[in-house]
What does this fold into?
Amino acid sequence: MDINKYSPLTETTYYILLSLIEPSHGYVMMQKVEELSDNKVKIAAGTMYGAIENLVKQRLIQSVQSDDKRRKTYVITEKGIEVLRQDYKRMSHMIRITNNLFSNTDK
Amino acid sequence: MRKFKVFNDFDKEEQWLERMGSEGYQLESTYFGYKFRLVDPKEKKIKIDFRKFKHSADFLDYITLFEDSGWRHIAGSKYSGIQYFEKIDDQAIDDIFSDNVSKAKRYQRYAHSSLMLAIGNFPLIIFLYFTDIIDPVYFIRPSELYLTPGLWDKSGTSFWFSFIFETPFALLRGAAWTFIPLSVLSYLFFSYKANKRYIQSMIKK
It folds into this structure.
């Protein structure tokens, strides 16, 4: 399994994956993404539907049983968490070195 | 009221439907042309997506997601592909797509679906050809489509009377099958157009 082919994740994909640490359906995902991103990332319904379809195909998320007959519920997969972790490491590194360089020039 | 119109540009179709809405014509269905219901004129946002569904549960999930986010599904069915939505919540985002790539992808799905329809109908043409229903002779000598004995030896009023009388039948005999190759050609045309629009909007982004 080549995790690196998903990296770097787009901002939208990163937030969508984060929103599915707990199982939820499409609309709740849209609200969570908005909340997590400080209202900076707003995903519209058609875009969200396509994104879910893609992530399911890539097996980064999967649908799970739910009582709601009208709405499908999804949750992140092991693979999805691994991809998220890799991208988190990548960004942490960037933040660390940027921080170092910035604090050096400040002195 | 019913209207017949053909679009290959979703943006133009949306604008036309919004204009109809502001004149009081509310889109009701698209099974056979555009069917409108007379209501109070209202400025309403209308957006179009293209998706076909295998399972009813998927279709329901799709429609519900839009409804939850302030867009009511007004026309289109599981298999129809073109799905029409109307904005019902003032708080909702003004579009059903939040980035240009996903907006462009509906043209890609439309192109693919039209191409599949063209390919699906193609065996019918071959079948019609081999069963002699499509006979190229009629293209070269359309006079053979007329069956009235001695028609071409007649003259004057008698000729014109028989000729005009039989023309609709001749057309039916010779051209009834043409709708199949014509529909294949139009599917191909729509597919080509949609694909071009997909590529254009991907470049524009």
